[in-house]
Amino acid sequence: VTSEGSTATSTLDELACLESMRRGDPTCLGGFFEVWADRLYSLSLRLTGDPAAAEDIVQEAFVKLMAGADRIEGRSRLATWLYRVAYNASMDRLREQKKLAPVPADEDDEAALPMPTTLVEFGRSPEAMLRDAEMRHALDEAIQSLPPSLRAAFLLRDVEGLTTAEAAEALGLTETNLKVRLHRARLLLRERLSAFVARGSGGARS
Amino acid sequence: VTCAALVSLLSDYIDGSLAPEPRAALEAHLAACDKCHIVLDTTQCTILLYRVCESPSLAAERREALLRRLEKACRRSV
Questions:
Q1: How far apart (Å, rounded) are the C-alpha atoms in residues A186 and A189?
Q2: Separation CA B27–CA B16 (nearest Å)
Q3: Would the CB atoms of B66 and A58 count as touching at under 8 Å?
């Protein structure tokens, strides 16, 4: 039993569409764009923090896809190909802007897990929490505080719904390393959100 | 199962990828340990929050302009 989702969320025949785009026919580009543009944009924006760069990255990914240098077989390969291009381009941007700190040596080391310290129930449903603008801001801050390599693992696996194998392939990691990064990311995000909730309830009590 | 062991297996548990035996041991610990129960609960809620919150998207006019550029690039590419 696994909760892993599938990236197959549309009925668009993406591979047939890709073939026609590569022949210079933009007829189904709109439908393809509809499925992929925002996914690639939100990943790139959450990695780079720069809307203009994220838009450029979406454009680059599509242009590269249509240029058709790489063979892409199967829908899952198409998804991982697109996410990989967006991820690599985002990391290149961060590197150029010297915003990319070197990966800590223990990042893929399970022994160095961040242990939970703040233990409070969130006390509200996710829907109720998301109606709170401060909570939404805390969510943004928490995810931006993660190193990009952990952020990417979390976004692809838990937000975009890729399987472990797909996310690992998109990020150029082994499945084991992907799982370690995902685990660290989840624990760090849990900790940050718990600290936010604890501050809120402390304020309400005083 | 200790609390530290639970934390290290937490993602595998959430993803349903634990074998029946360690899963049963972990669930026995969860039933008896309030702290670990909170850790599991808040971790699952954290994942759900990010899954259901609105992802950033391209503004309508930027989107339209980008699609037009790509259509041009598509026709040019042959």
A1: 5
A2: 12
A3: yes
The size of the A-B interface in CB pairs under 8 A is: 129
CA A42 to chain centroid: 8
Q: Complex ipTM, two decimals?
A: 0.94
Specify the DSSP class assigned to residue A25: -
Residues A153 and A164: their CA atoms lie apart, in Å, by 9
Residue holding tokens 């992802």? B55
Among A43, A122, A131, A190, the strongest candidate for a mutation testing the B interface, having the largest count of B CBs within 10 A, is: A190
Angle between helices A75-96 and A14-22 (to 10 degrees): 60
Contact A43, B51 (CB under 8 A): no
A135: tokens are 């909570």
Pair B44, A121: CB distance under 8 Å: no
What global pTM score does this model have? 0.89
CA distance A119 to A198: 8
Instruction: Answer whether B7 sits within 8 Å of A130, measured CB to CB.
Output: no
Give residue A110's identity as a one-letter amino acid code: E
In this predicted model, what pLDDT tens digit does every residue of A41-84 receive, in sequence order?
999 999 999 999 999 999 999 999 988 767 787 777 888 999 99
Residue A129 contacts B, CB cutoff 8 Å: yes
Give which of B72, B74, B76 to mutate to test A binding, by max A Cβ within 10 Å: B74
A89-147 pLDDT tens trace: 999 999 998 777 766 666 666 667 889 999 999 999 999 999 999 999 999 999 999 99
